[in-house]
Amino acid sequence: MDRVICSDYFSVCVLRMKLKQLPADFIVEEIPDYTISSEKDEHTIFLLQKQEIDTFDALRRIARQLRLSLFEVGYAGLKDKHAVARQYISIPTRYNVQGMKQDSLELTFVGYSRKKIKIGDLAANRFLIIARDIQKNELDDISLRAKTIATSGVPNYFDSQRFGSVIEKVFIGKEVILKNYEKAVKQYLTAYQKSEPKKTKNEKRRILSCWNDLSTVRVFNKAFSLVIKEYLKTKDYCAAYQKIPAHLREMYVNAYQSYLWNECVKTILRSSVEKKNLYSVEYSIGSLTFFTNLSEQERGNIPRTFLTISDQMTVPNDERKIIESVLAKEGLMVADFKIEDETGNFFKTRARQVLLFPQEFSLGKPEQDELNRKGTSERYKTKVSFSLPKGSYATVVTKRLFRH
């Protein structure tokens, strides 16, 4: 039975299509924006191919196996765990690394560079995706939507991968804005995903059981211990919050800011596009609004870019009204985003494209799906390939195309 997604705005039928049924069904490869030379230089560049392991874990394994510091390994971005991912990393040439192969990852020598690869050092990502378990009567609609990708594009949402830090839909970044520092610290120390290591989950359970008297809990995790010790010393949860590792605090702020940007874009689409042409697709923290197509007038009504929210932003009145309407639902005002003096964190204003236009987009001919045949009822698979600029999500393209 097909899944039905409902919201307070509209409800639609969603395809049962399957993504990532096999690791090779989702392939992503970086397109670098730096020069790789054959002349020996300070850093050696390798192509890292991995699957069923996230980027951080892969880099830790590499550093451990090659006996070098993790901080000396350069990389441009994080790649999906449940995919075949090909990305470039740099290792100082003085280590004389030739390559490496270990279970789910492989390093292949590519060349040299004068500089270490840093976050953001890529022009785009190229994707090859196989969608499976498609019914025959769905193929024509998919083909029609594919034809509109070039002219109407895709909403450039932040997708679920951005919100791995959000557990049970609690945004630590929002709690910090609201000055609920105890709740923010408690969420960090006690909430966990099912995928976390058993050791970590057990420690978080112990901390939760002793929450009313943290002096009684024995903590082995160094990061958790620093936070708890700061609270016991100061009795100040804001001070304790600032002991959470800086990269995590930045991630919490960015996650909430990204969610709000998504909500603003949903508001834009609902006011700019005819209602009958809109549909909703679930993601990890709610739902996203998509369109089947855009008329020339509708495209003209959608701004080219929209700013991420901060207390420093300057926006036209019509865009400010959108922001204020979204914040009102959250119980917030723009001025509440001034948190740097108290927490050391801040929200940065960035202009992000509202509509995304995948390059080199191609939808292959449907073929029989060997994995999902249902008795006498055939199921089909199809390949879709495209490239996206850095910071954009391939899964929003598949949501638009397959309503999944």
Q: What general outline do the C-alpha atoms trace?
A: globular
CATH class call of one domain:
Alpha Beta
Q: Provide the succession of SSEs.
A: EEEEHEEEEEHEHHHHHHEEHEHHEEEEEH
Q: What about the largest sheet?
A: 10 strands, mixed
Mean pLDDT: 92
Briefly note the CATH topology name of one domain: Alpha-Beta Plaits
User: Per DSSP, what share of the residues sits in E-state strands of 2 or more residues?
Assistant: 15-25%
Give me the number of helical elements: 12
The CA-CA distance between the termini, in Å, is 14 Å
Helix content: 25-40%
CATH architectural designation of one domain? 2-Layer Sandwich
| Structural class estimated from helices and strands | alpha+beta
Count of distinct strands: 18
Q: Nearest-angstrom radius of gyration?
A: 23 Å
Which runs of at least 5 residues are low in confidence (pLDDT < 50)? 1-14
